[in-house]
Design goal:
0% of the residues lie in helices and 47% in strands. By secondary structure, it is mostly beta strands. It is globular, with a radius of gyration of 13 Å. The termini are far apart.
Length: 116
């Protein structure tokens, strides 16, 4: 089963940048479409970026042009480069497979807080 560990979050000022990492275990990682999700306080978890096994990407409108998802299949790792951070980006960020039936248990996520 897919196991996931997110890292790289922190407290940053508006317009700052962060690079999040998600280390995944499991031999099927390279075949999976993966996504970065986030959950802000009192809101539903939402998908913000996804990447297919071949590297095609897609983004939520709210992050398009600011977030970049990438993956390194040799390292079983997915990355999320976040630029031009806004206070509304404050959330816990998680990674997981896109396909519901292939998802692992949700990890603890990594907290991103944008504040001056």
């Amino acid at each position: 089963q897919l196991q996931l560990v997110e890292s790289g979050g922190g407290l940053v000022q508006p317009e700052g940048s962060l690079r999040l990492s998600c280390a995944a275990s499991g031999s099927i990682f390279s075949a999976l479409s993966m996504g970065w999700y986030r959950q802000a306080p009192r809101k539903q978890r939402e998908l913000v970026a996804s990447i297919t096994s071949s590297g095609s990407t897609n983004y939520a409108d709210s992050v398009k042009g600011r977030f970049t998802i990438s993956r390194d299949n040799a390292k079983n790792t997915v990355y999320l480069q976040i630029n031009s951070l806004k206070p509304e980006d404050t959330a816990v960020y998680y990674c997981n497979a896109i396909r519901l039936g292939l998802r692992g248990a949700w990890g603890q996520g990594t907290q991103v807080t944008v504040s001056s």
